[in-house]
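tokens incoming
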């Protein structure tokens, strides 16, 4: 992996206080082993929003998968499908929505992470396309009102080296991370709520 790509994946915004606290918080979580119970058959399977999953978690949306692997999000979709885990597709992907939904295996559940675009019609098209492609739920990003300053990440140069094929999900209305993230501002969430009323898919807000 190129250093610029690693900087993007491993860094946080500004002084990375939240990033460090996330790691510290996980370090404070202890798994308490259960004793004197039958462990010959272990089943982690559950349902998430009514959809079956082999584990009590899902693979969340991450941008620009091809920074880490030439197959990008397609590799993540296949991996999630092979293990029966739900995959949330990112709006800021390096593959098109057609490619990502086309890579899923039979019966695989996919969600879609959505930035609310300033152009409502663009978002309507995105929602309609996701519904037609079988995405079971929409997750509207709610925690990016300003554009974060990523001091350690050389994201602009690294993202420019990613080869994007097919039709990008937002039809090139969001040409880079900063523009797309800015359009996820809080004042757009009400518009997102209105737009989601036009779809049969479940709609959720996420941080």
């Amino acid at each position: 992996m190129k250093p610029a790509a690693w900087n993007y994946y491993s860094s946080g915004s500004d002084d990375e206080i939240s990033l460090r606290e996330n790691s510290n918080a996980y370090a404070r979580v202890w798994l308490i082993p259960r004793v004197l119970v039958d462990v010959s058959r272990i089943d982690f399977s559950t349902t998430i929003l009514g959809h079956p999953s082999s584990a009590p978690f899902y693979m969340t949306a991450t941008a620009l998968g091809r920074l880490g692997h030439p197959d990008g999000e397609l590799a993540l979709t296949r991996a999630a499908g092979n293990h029966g885990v739900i995959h949330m597709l990112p709006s800021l992907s390096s593959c098109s929505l057609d490619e990502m939904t086309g890579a899923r295996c039979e019966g695989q559940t996919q969600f879609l992470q959505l930035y609310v675009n300033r152009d409502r019609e663009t978002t309507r098209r995105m929602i309609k396309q996701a519904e037609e492609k079988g995405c079971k739920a929409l997750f509207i990003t709610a925690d990016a009102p300003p554009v974060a300053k990523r001091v350690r990440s050389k994201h602009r140069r690294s993202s420019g080296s990613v080869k994007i094929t097919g039709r990008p999900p937002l039809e090139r209305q969001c040409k880079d991370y900063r523009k797309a993230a800015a359009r996820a501002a809080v004042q757009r969430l009400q518009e997102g709520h209105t737009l989601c009323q036009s779809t049969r898919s479940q709609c959720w807000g996420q941080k």
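note: The first strand starts at residue 46 and ends at 48.
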